[in-house]
Amino acid sequence: MSLRTSILRAAAPALALLLTACWVPLERGRQMEARLDRLEADSAEQQRVVADRVAAVDRKIVEVQQKIDELNRAARRSGADLGVSLQRLQDEFTRVKGDLEVEQHRLGQIEKSVGALSDRTDKRFAALRGRGALDELEAKERIDTLERPDDKVSFLALAQKEEATGDKSVARTLYDEYVRRWPADAMAPEAAFHSAERSMEQKRWREALVAYGWIYEKAPRSERAPDAMLGIARAMLEVDELKKDAPGVLKELVAKFPRSDAAAQARKLQADLTPKKPRRK
């Protein structure tokens, strides 16, 4: 049964009533029939559209299922390919790792050769610069082999031991390090003084001035202060551009510490430096 038939059947009682009573003119009846025709056509179009959409959805479902199947096959195939690729990469990594180990071994040999050459070169240059520079280099090499303690008492004992055994350069370096690490310690002026004295023995006048000068500036009231001032004057006398300043240091020493042994030596040195007046004939 068509939609038009159903509508007409449902509307038949009302139409009969209208016709009987002559309420609806004949033209109105034709208009109603035309409207029913349009409704039926619209309904058929809607059914066609719905059918087309359902068919399109079905096609999409089929396509999706096909894609899912393809992905599943690809996943299985990719898994196998991945295994092959991983094996290939692992083999390549093993090869590269072996090459790297060989190169590292060669590099290590080269570094050893360069290090040995550098050591020999440093010693040659140090020897050319003089005995003091060579002693300094040898002291550095020796210090690198020493186990230097972290507590100041043991560290100072190590420096004193090296000094007692005759390795002056090592002892001086250790004394300098002691001063740098524990500058506020009561034994720092003593360490600085021993460093300065070892420098004087090696005729390293400027380094001696630095160590004596540390006492003069940082520990002016320590027991080593007078000796440091005397050491400054003596070191200055060995440096041409500083000779003229030595008498002033001696004068200051005598004024500050007149009763010290260093002051007594300063007076004697002052006398030696004072130009002697020629004797009258």
Automatic annotation (TrEMBL):
Keywords attached to this entry: Coiled coil
InterPro entries (alphabetical): TPR-like_helical_dom_sf
Presence of the UniProt keyword NAD in the record: no
Residues in coiled coil: 29-74
Highest taxon of the lineage: Bacteria
Keyword Magnesium: no
Residue span of region Disordered: 260-281
Name of the molecule in the record: Cell division coordinator CpoB
Species the sequence originates in: Anaeromyxobacter dehalogenans (strain ATCC BAA-258 / DSM 21875 / 2CP-1)
